Amino acid sequence: MQYFPYSCETGTIRLAGNETVICQFLRQVNPKRKAGRQLGKYPSQRQSSNMQKLPFGFTSKEIIDQGRTSRENIDAVKQWLSSVDSAIIPRVQDELVVIFLLSCDNDLPLTKHTITMYYKCKRNSPDIFDNREMDRADLKKAMNSIHMCSLPVRTDENYAIHHFKLNDTNYLNFDLVPVMKLSYMLLDITQEKDLPRGLVVIIDCKGVGLMHLTRMKIGPMRRYFQFLQEGFPIQMKVIHIINAVYFFDKFLNVVKLCTKSELMEMIKVHPPSADPEKLFALVPKKCWPEDYGGDLPSTETLHEKAIEQFEEKQEFWRLEQEIRCKNSD
User: Which segments of the protein form a coiled coil according to its record (predicted)?
Assistant: First the structure.
């Protein structure tokens, strides 16, 4: 996950890169319940043979063998999880622990905080994180409004790239919350296998009109960006806004209401340009769809592939929600 400074809810301070991370951590154990947990009155996080597991295309051992994390780090996180009420954080399998560790550069205190906020944000935002069935009318409408995909070719640094482009320019057909939901679903597709070392986001604003501002919803946006800043299980590297309209600063002013300065600094705004070389300076030509003069298939083709990936991922999201919500009632 990307490191952002001060969280008013938890008192956490995060510094970028590999600098010192100073944390005044959220207390995981309520003192009034501590004795009960020590007596075994709360479900354990210890992984058992009958534990429900999400289907990933990699194993923790493969990531350890690559030298990206260690068995000791995984066990340390699992030991901490064993002290946490499973109504707060459900049982977490090794592969998911690995994802969190990599997102935090194997910083254990930060990993624990990220896991905590990951589940807290999901618990507080069922409109964004639950009911991810692709036959829902709102998700179908959102997939027509915005074309999106996880590009099949990554940067030389093994950064994944998420590409978003307005397809239906009618602002009345733009519904923000389903688009938020889909954008986080896209990350699950990206992290299914061959875990990337970071994420680059490209948002093409061609066709965006001033009336799209009326479709912004501050409440959901605050919750969306809280997850992005504190519970996001991958390191955000940069957000490129291309073909930015002349009034895009007004959109940024709305975003500023919901985010911290470090995230704002990651947003790079680029005006319209007919020179593809300017785009290739952002990410390599091999990573761009042919619409932009790149080597990949068209955005339409890539979007259709993304729809297939969303459909194939349905059982994953059903099981993830079942595991996450089973003990939270």
Answer: none
Q: Which of 162, 198, 159 is nearest to 183 (CA)?
A: 162
The helix, strand and coil proportions of the chain, stated in percent and rounded to the nearest 5, come to 45, 10, 40
Give the phi and the psi of residue 77 in degrees, each rounded to 5: -65, -40
Give the tens place of pLDDT for each residue, 166-195.
999 999 999 999 999 999 999 999 999 999
Whole-angstrom distance, CA of residue 239 vs CA of residue 4: 15
| HEC-encoded secondary structure of 225-239 | HHHHHHHCCCCEEEE
Q: Look at residue 99 and tell me whether its pLDDT is greater than 50.
A: yes
Contact indicator for 5, 13 with CB cutoff of 8 Å: yes
Question: What are the pLDDT digits (tens) for 11-50?
Answer: 333 333 433 333 333 333 333 333 333 333 334 444 455 6
**CB neighbours of 70 closer than 8 A, spacing ≥ 6?**
64, 106
Strands 146-150 and 159-166 turn out to be: antiparallel
In eight-state DSSP terms, residue 69 is S
**Distances 90 to 44, 121, 186 between C-alpha atoms, Å:** 9, 14, 22
* Pair of tokens at residue 238: 């940069």
pTM given for the model:
0.84
DSSP 3-state of 267: strand
Q: What is the CA radius of gyration of the chain?
A: 20
Which residue type does 26 have? L
Q: Token digits for 143? A: 């997939």
The DSSP code for 92 is -
User: Tokens 């340009």 appear where?
Assistant: 273
The CA distance from 304 to 296, in Å, is 14
What secondary structure letter does DSSP report for 171?
G
In contact, 195 and 158? CB cutoff 8 Å: no
**Per-residue confidence (pLDDT) for residue 1, from 0 to 100:** 55
Biggest alpha carbon–alpha carbon distance for the chain = 67
